[in-house]
Amino acid sequence: MCQHLTSCPSAEAVDREAARIVATFPEQGWSLLCNGVIVFEDTGELLPDGRTIAPHRGPAVHALAA
């Protein structure tokens, strides 16, 4: 799918979120990446084949400093 000179990671790659944004809808809370993945502002994802990835936020930075 990706047409960039240095290809973006595929939708199956572990680093799929590193693909370039081709459309963003901040008022709706999601962006479309060039690999066909839809990423949501809560860090959830919808893959091109319909599978979902649950939000995967880590602990707050201030919680790690203790």
Tell me about this structure:
Strand 1 and strand 2 form a beta hairpin. Helices cover 6% and strands 24% of the residues. A 5-stranded antiparallel β-sheet has the order 1-2-3-4-5, with no helix packed on it. The protein has one domain. It contains 1 helix and 5 strands, in the order E-E-E-E-E-H. The chain is mainly beta and 66 residues long. The mean pLDDT is 86.
Note the overall shape: globular
| Element order: H for helix, E for strand | EEEEEH
Mean pLDDT: 86
- pLDDT < 50 runs, ≥5 residues: none
Q: Order of strands across the widest beta sheet?
A: 1-2-3-4-5
Domain count: the total is: 1
Oligomeric assembly: single chain
What distance lies between the first and last C-alpha atoms, to the nearest angstrom? 44 Å
Estimated helix fraction = under 10%
Quick structural overview:
With 66 residues, this protein is mostly beta strands. It has 1 helix and 5 strands; from the N terminus they run βββββα.
